[in-house]
Request: fold
Amino acid sequence: METELISKKDLLDLKGISYGQLYRWKRKNLIPEDWFIRKSTFTGQETFFPKEKILQRIDKIQEMKEDLSLDDLAEVFSPTVGDVEFSTESLVGNGIISEMAFNFFMDVRNFNKLFEFEDVIQVYLIDQLLNSGEINREEARMVLDLLNGKEEIFRTKPTEIVIVRKFGVSSSLLVSNQENVLFDNGTKIIKKVSIGTVAEELKSKLMGVK
Amino acid sequence: MENLRDLFINGHGSSGGGTFETVKINGHGKIHGDLKCDYFTINGHGSTEGNVDAQRFQIDGSGKIRGNVTSKFAKIEGHSSIYGNVDAERLDVDGHATITGKVTAKELDIDGWVTIENNTKAEETKIDGRCKVKGNFIGKEIRMDGILTVQGNCEVETFKGDGKFDIDGLLSADQININIYWSSSSKEIGGQTIIVKRKIELLNKLVSTFKTVQLTTDLIEGDYVELNSTKAKIVRGEDVVIGDNCDIDLVEYRGTYQENSNSVVRKAVKI
Reply:
């Protein structure tokens, strides 16, 4: 599938932003380097962006830049999982994660406390998945098993989780570095979710809470 | 504080490294191993095979460090090759230095000649000598009065001063305010305010190099762009002022546009 592109000129017009802002956001890594796509046009070199991604990102930057510094924003958008402070009480109390998901996680992992931000991501993720009704508890358990001990991978590399079912049997995969994964016809992809996106969502919620 | 010993090497001595108060190499000293000390200095032909962690680090003679240097204040007056990374609060290069690893510093002050073969991150940089960075240069402010070469991108908040620069990638800054002294170049330039002036000195007029000294670039994009002595393919801006001695293929502006008659602008369009 071809990704729809938008030229830099059209982007500035559409969003009412300036060159100065765009270059500043790029410097602060709010917009990833690989979203800048260079193409030759009749007027010379022009820069294009993946339209959907950049529009979403700019909406988010504009919405959040009132409350957060650019460096905080950079932390929110960083594709890898960084350090964010949290406490279990505030997570459940503020409705960022549900008590049910929290208990489920504690039960599966045999923990009595959330230790790392990586743990919080996992609770948040299965909370979302269970809540949407896309997966059942058994599958959530499977996802947690899959992620167990893989923190280093999803902390440092862009990673996706793919949950598939074939003939009533589910399985899950951890895919890093965004390579294409293809399945046979009988396999149904139940859910594909990028840990980076989940982390971004979670980080922006956590920073909103502060 | 524990009482630490000093290490002095005056002749052809060698040592296995360790923790000291002061380490002074005056002759042909060699240190095999990691060093941690308060003050490290080389006056002769010293070398180390290991990392150096010194509050104050100074090379006056000729030094070879085969390892990483961590220091609060590092100063290179003589000749030095560092085969590793340098992490310093302040790094002064008054002599000659080659650093093969990454450089991270709060303050970088170049009066001499430095080649950094990797990425460089420095908050405040002052270049009065020559600075060559073979990777990307990232920081807050660069003040130029010398020569800067960057083989990657140069991304700061403020880029200002006189001198000469050659950047193979993008020069990006909120404020770019430069007086070019010798011909300079950057593949692309982007930011909020971009002002390029031409420093005219009597000597230049006499040698009549005035016309030939230009900033050459493919693309300039900024909110306010004011150019002199610039040769560019495309200039895009909100407000664009083309001053003297420019040669520009295409100007695209959204707000206002001014052009001086002794510049060549092949096409200017309001978009």
